[in-house]
Amino acid sequence: MRSLMSDGVDVGKISTDPWLRLMMKIGIPLAVISIIALWSGQLMGIPGLFVLFVVTGGLTLAIGLAYNIRFVLLAYRKARE
């Protein structure tokens, strides 16, 4: 069952966009690396891992913001059609 947004736009068709898929494939592993760096740096007391956390966390946030903007733009285009 495909989910529909409140205006009737099919989310399944939007999420097949190649750019959205690419952002997901890059963003999810970056988020995992970021969380692992934060926790292992805290538990092992390695301050260098905090720098890795900040870099990967920042990249993850930027990719997530770009994903959300692209998703909204695509949904808006589909709703206008």
Radius of gyration: 17 Å
How much helix, percentage-wise, in residues? over 70%
Overall body shape: elongated
Low-confidence stretches: none
Structural class label: mainly alpha
What order do the SSEs take from the amino end to the carboxyl end, as H and E?
Answer: HHH
Mean pLDDT, nearest integer? Answer: 88
Q: State the helix count.
A: 3
Tell me the number of structural domains: 1
Pick out its properties.
mainly alpha; single chain; 81 residues
Quick structural gist:
The chain is mainly alpha-helical and 81 residues long.
Describe the structure in your own words.
- The radius of gyration is 17 Å and the shape is elongated.
- Helix content is 79%, strand content 0%.
- With 81 residues, the protein is mostly helical.
- Helix 2 runs antiparallel to helix 3 (48-80).
Topology:
Elements: H1 11-14, H2 18-44, H3 48-80
Helix pairs in contact: 2-3
